[in-house]
Amino acid sequence: MMKRRAWLRALVALPLLAPIGAAALDEVIGRALFRRAWVPAPSSTHANDGLGPLFNARSCAACHHDLDRTPVQTNADGAVSSDHLVLRFSDAAGNPDPVYGRQMQSAAVAGVRAEGRVMKTEQGYKLDGLAYGDLGPTIRIGALQAPSLRGLGELETVPATAIAKIAADNAGRSDGVRGRVNWVTDAQGARQVGRFGWKASQPTLMAQVETAFLLDLGLSSKGHPLPQGDCTARQTECLAAPMGDRDGGPEISPDIVSRIVAYLAEVGARSAVGGNSAGLASFEAIGCAACHRPSLPGTHGPVQAFTDLLLHDLGSALDGGATEPGVASTEWRTAPLWGLSRTLANGAGLMHDGRARTVEDAIDLHGGEAAFAKTRFKSLPEAERRRLIAFLTSL
Questions:
Q1: What is the arithmetic mean of pLDDT over 144-158?
Q2: How far apart are CA 157 and CA 318, in angstroms?
Q3: Within a domain: 7
Q4: Strands (E), 187-310
Q5: Cα separation values, 54 from 115, 125, 201, 301, Å
Q6: Which of 14, 249, 292, 297 fits a 20 to 30 Å CA distance from 108?
Q7: Residues 89, 132: one domain?
Q8: What is the distance between the alpha carbons of residues 357 and 347, in angstroms, rounded to a whole number?
Q9: Which residues lie across from 180 on neighbouring strands?
Q10: d(Cα 294, Cα 200) in Å, to the nearest integer?
Q11: Which of 180-189, 245-254, 308-317 has the highest mean pLDDT?
Q12: DSSP-assigned letter for residue 74
């Protein structure tokens, strides 16, 4: 603890251009912590050890370069070399694999075998070289590519009552759009609206950060206090590896988590409609705005994220395989469209696993509750369809 405090004092003492307040200081520290590389325990500096024993990345920034979505990189043999593409495991009900847990970790500390590799194929992604035997017979696999982290603080300001009202109002729609709230139980046992993650499984930005520490870096926190991360009871060498907990406390202190949250909460997102009012009108007319709502009420003003933060069933073409408890594998939280232009410019791909290379590809994958809007899009005159695409690619 003393070494952690010394590290924070040293960071605070860095020269600044002008005095800043406590909130701004938390953001500065949070930015540094987001980029910090964690190391396995034990190390000479306790404040930055505890990585693993199983993990996917050594830092938050490794998965979220510049906070944007970026393309998946592969080696010459097709093995994924990027940290921001992971494989999740679950049965149909969302229960994790009994051996490999919720996520495949492709790296490990010394003395522990990594769980395997992810290979990219023409059909998507597959497992290679599983180190601890086969998956359970009912286990499904799902690939997830790290999303942009811009605008998360604004999404957190949308009142839960507003999200629930959208779901209730959808019951009267005639186009098949429903959408539902993913009600989740937080660490204190309270029932809350899920709003973060591909399946809207996290109610707060803090819960989302703590889950990322657990699954991607193998670091414990107040919300996930076990230091072994995603390693299971059957992975004995993982359980025997050195852990970074301090006197029974978490490897990542609440102060560290709160400062990373403060940093992420201040990162805005681009959602400028500009002068393309005709494109927006077409977007609304064909029904896309039923789920991708251009604006939601927020504590500090409208949140122009183009989402309703609800779960929607998008049909068999978007069956993600693995899922979360209480959520069908074809259900997804409506992805915010703000910053879409940055994702397209990066060539990072769209949808949960990046399989869609263009906006048209992404629309074509939509089914289920979005089938009516997709049909109307395809029936638009060519000129109007181009205006709509131009509008979306400008967000």
A1: 97
A2: 29
A3: no
A4: 191-193
A5: 8, 20, 23, 42
A6: 249
A7: yes
A8: 7
A9: 311
A10: 19
A11: 308-317
A12: B
Q: Over 80: is that where the pLDDT of 387 sits?
A: yes
Closest CA to 363 of 320, 314, 327: 314
Answer yes or no: do 174 and 317 share one domain: yes
Instruction: Output Rg (C-alpha) for the chain, integer angstroms.
Output: 21
Q: What type of residue is 140?
A: R
- Domain closes at, from 265, 297, 313: 265
Q: CA of 164: how far to CAs of 168, 195, 311, in Å? A: 6, 11, 11
Q: How far apart are CA 322 and CA 326, in angstroms?
A: 12
- pLDDT, tens digit, 9 for 90 and up, residues 81-120: 999 999 999 999 999 999 999 999 999 999 999 999 999 9
Domain count, the chain: 3
Q: Classify residue 169: in a domain, yes or no.
A: yes
Query: CA-CA distance, 257 to 212, in Å (whole number)?
Result: 11
Dihedral sign of CA atoms 127, 354, 163, 186 in order: positive
CA distance linking residue 228 with residue 17, whole number of Å: 41
Lowest mean pLDDT among 197-206, 252-261, 268-277, 326-335: 268-277
DSSP state of 223: S
In the structure encoding, which two tokens stand for residue 393, read together? 């690619």
